[in-house]
Design a protein that fits this description.
Blueprint lengths: L1 E3 L16 E7 L4 E18 L6 E2 L12 E8 L8 H11 L4 E3 L2 E3 L4 E3 L14 H10 L17 E2 L9 E2 L1 E9 L2 E9 L4 E3 L6 E3 L12 H6 L19 E6 L5 H18 E2 L9 E6 L9 H22 L3 E3 L2 E4 L10
Parallel strand pairs: 5-8, 15-17
Antiparallel strand pairs: 1-2, 2-3, 3-5, 3-17, 4-8, 6-7, 9-10, 11-12, 12-15, 13-14, 13-16, 18-19
Helix pairs in contact: 1-2, 4-5
């Protein structure tokens, strides 16, 4: 059982946004874990939930028609619906520090969360809990963010339409961009049914493998040839995957604008994962605006940049991932193992 802060991390990502901290908890016994995105000073938030099998907490609160517009953390976790318990530990950590929504003499931390399904990787009885969420907060910092087999991406996999035995390793990735004094960034845990595709080249980076496991199969080409997995009849098992992400900016946004940014950011998933938003995925994108730049920005600009950096974060996630396998784990090679595959 390990807690990851910035060790082995790369120098850019979600923490490029002033007011944002990121911490991972990685439980190496399975593997699984959770990732917490802290906004101690509060951040205006929106969300867009897609795919047919979401697992979420406090997303209704983020509707633009509802009253509360500020959150204090977002939790991304493995462990399927069990992993939502990690948010309770984050609430406890924030509460101990008096961080939350002031209501009379009380403060109530607002902590939305989303989970992904990784229970078939190792012992399904091991999953993130409240203590895991608390530990991720303890590890959080505004330094560089670790990527790959960490936090919510520790047990993630991609290319699962033809079964976990033909899948590859997913993970956590992050990226950022600065334009005209405004910074936009993304962090994602990639655990998709579909393949991960480089939008710049159309080349598959990681995904379903051939039946003998020796090459990338190309899920969409396989489907077009009529190679339908048995799980399509009936449809792919609900909740068997899911990609979850946070995009953030230091611009000043309203809650409705943050919601629109979350909607537009899903285009980044559509560019880099194919197919996406399936019956087996519960894809969720949260959008946060810390306002640290003290200036508004056109929502179209922020949303377009968010989609771009989210696509880049997806690629970074699978490229940073490393293979797993063994007696109690499925064999999941990483993108690096297929880098030279034609």
């Amino acid at each position: 059982m390990t807690v990851d802060g910035a060790t082995g991390a790369l120098p850019s990502g979600l923490t490029a946004i002033a007011g944002i901290e990121v911490g991972h908890f990685t439980d190496s016994r399975r593997p699984t874990g959770c990732t917490v995105i802290l906004a101690r000073g509060g951040a205006v938030a929106g969300v867009d939930v897609r795919g047919a099998s979401p697992g979420t907490r406090e997303t209704d609160l983020l509707s633009p028609v509802n009253a509360i517009d500020t959150v204090h953390a977002v939790v991304l976790a493995g462990g399927s619906a069990f992993g939502l318990d990690a948010a309770s530990g984050v609430m406890r950590w924030l509460d101990e520090r008096g961080i939350g929504l002031a209501i009379g003499s009380f403060t109530v931390p607002i902590v939305p969360a989303a989970i992904l399904f990784d229970l078939w990787v190792g012992d399904a009885r091991i999953r993130p809990d409240a203590d895991a969420g608390y530990a991720a907060c303890e590890a959080a910092s505004d330094g560089a963010v670790a990527e790959g087999n960490v936090g919510a991406g520790a047990g993630a996999s991609v290319g699962k339409l033809f079964g976990i035995e033909r899948a590859m390793k997913g993970g956590v990735g992050t990226a950022s961009i600065e334009v005209g004094g405004i910074t936009v960034a993304a962090l994602v845990a990639v655990n998709a049914i579909g393949d991960v595709v480089d939008p710049a080249t159309g080349r598959i980076v990681a995904g379903a493998r051939s039946a003998d496991g020796s090459r990338l199969a190309d899920t969409m080409a396989s489907l077009k040839r009529g190679e339908l997995p048995s799980r399509l009849q009936p449809p792919v098992q609900a909740g068997a995957a899911t990609t979850i992400a946070v995009v953030a900016t230091d611009a000043v946004l309203t809650k409705a604008e943050a919601t629109k940014v979350a909607q537009m950011a899903h285009d980044g998933l559509a560019r880099s994962i194919n197919p996406i938003h399936t019956s087996g995925d519960g894809d969720v994108v949260f959008a946060l605006a810390t306002g640290a730049a003290r200036r508004p920005a056109p929502v179209t600009l922020v949303g377009a940049l968010a989609a771009d950096v989210l696509a880049e974060a997806v690629l970074r996630a699978v490229r940073a991932a490393t293979s797993i396998g063994g007696t109690d784990l499925p064999d999941l090679p990483a993108a690096a193992d297929f880098a030279s595959t034609p």
